[in-house]
Design a protein that fits this description.
- It is a single chain.
- This protein has 20 helices and 17 strands.
- It is of the alpha/beta class.
- The chain has three domains: about 180 residues, 3-Layer(aba) Sandwich (Rossmann fold), CATH 3.40.50; about 120 residues, TPP-binding domain (Rossmann fold), CATH 3.40.50; about 180 residues, 3-Layer(aba) Sandwich (Rossmann fold).
- Helix 13 links the parallel strand 12 and strand 13.
- Helix 12 packs parallel to helix 19.
Length: about 550
Amino acid sequence: MEPSVPNTSEVQSSFVATLVDEWIRLGLREVVICPGSRSTPLALGFSRRSEVRRHVRLDERGAAFFALGRALESGWPVAVVVTSGTAAAELHAAVAEADQAEVPLLILTADRPPELHGVGAPQTMPQVALYGPAVRRHENPGVARAEASSSWRPLAARVWRAARGGGPGAPGPVHVNLAFVEPLVVESAASVPGRAGDAPWTETAAATRATSDDARVAGRVLAVVGRGVEAEWIVDARARGWAVIGDATAQGTTPYFDALLRGDDVVNTLRPDVVVRLGGAPASKWLGVRLREWDVPVIGWAGAGTVSDPDGLLAALHPGWPDLTTERANGDYATQWSRLTLRVDEWVRANDGGALVEPIVARAVVDAASRHRAPLVLGSSMPVRDVEWWASPRRSPTYSNRGVNGIDGVVSTFCGVASAGAGLGLVGDLTALHDVGSLVDGLSGSATGVLVVADNGGGGIFSFLSQAERLDATRFEELFGTPRPVDLVAVAAAFGHGATRVRSRTELDAALDGALAGPGLHVVVADVPSREENVRVHDRWVDAALGAARDA
């Protein structure tokens, strides 16, 4: 008896099995799945493969940021599966962050078939090219057809390669919009064969460290590094006599540079002969001011991804990485930076105790991350600045959603990073409240995560901006301070997590070490002074840092 022709539901099940199989062979190891009906073929397709770790998250927006956290920690694409309609729209914020932060994601949205569009079918909206130019590649293959099965593996390979940064583009999110017909549950899930020898359809080569010999880097070299620059490269650059400063995500860079760059007399002694830029930009506005004033050649290399150049100062942009094998740098320049920062560090350490202020919270969290070798996730407002400006050099991987610099989804991103095993997070109270729903799902498995919330009763960063000076207090508080009288300890406990309130450096250190000793999610709320006092604290610390530097 001749086998019957497979029906459309069976074909789409085989289609999904083939995509999943090809992605696994290319290296996919994690998927974040949100509950939904139309996405059933995708959910079942991934559930049949033991090679893939599955995370099931209720909220699509939080799920996408969780996936972003997993991709940040692992360096590999993570798949996100959602159903049709507004579920797909919920992913847009994380897609935008992944785009500009160059984080690889496979966004897999289920859709109704074409005949259900434009006729009032429920949970149906236009999803083709939903994320516009924020994705590296968009595919809308339509309802799967058996006669097109030879195209399924190439489709999977194309989007994987685009997410990984294959070809001319940088890594980032890709979008595959997959239309499915009912019935959605099919037990048969055989994939179509791959190439001879079971090889992946497309090989994705790892990035190589090319060098550029035509760029002269000599004399007093200042390297400004950010997102994407590896700790090993920073070690090598400093060993060659370069001074290296960086954003909060950079490991092992010279600390306290923002405070030093605020002093005109100190800045004159730190003028470089050439500036090298790699990766993202630090948060310090004073760095941009001094780079413009110094008016020295600024040379970029694209080996770490897109080079941030918001002021348009790059005189040249080269592929790969600068050649560190030369001995042309003036090592006295790096020594000068070290001498100044050592004096600042002596003052900071002498005042790093007692009642909590926000710079001390940042230092305590960074120190704990180093002690426990735990990855660190930072909120995009004051935490990322306090770590960049006042913390010790990072010794563990550090992440922050600085692609778009939003506070959206930061707690979810932290949960994603920490779900690798352990992690620390530092956010403000409004950032925690903005993503409080992510506490519903918390961490995956038996991971350990400690989320520190610096609770200053509102949006602390606005107190450093012109709005605080130009508006009356009532209007400022309503529109920018936006305090919310919510007890975050009670909120965390209500979700079933550990929760602690601390008021001193000693209490904070003890809470961090205790929470990191066991599994589960623990929220530590640090009571810090008012936002107005925080501004005064920062001013005092800057004055003291500059005084210490002048003494050097």
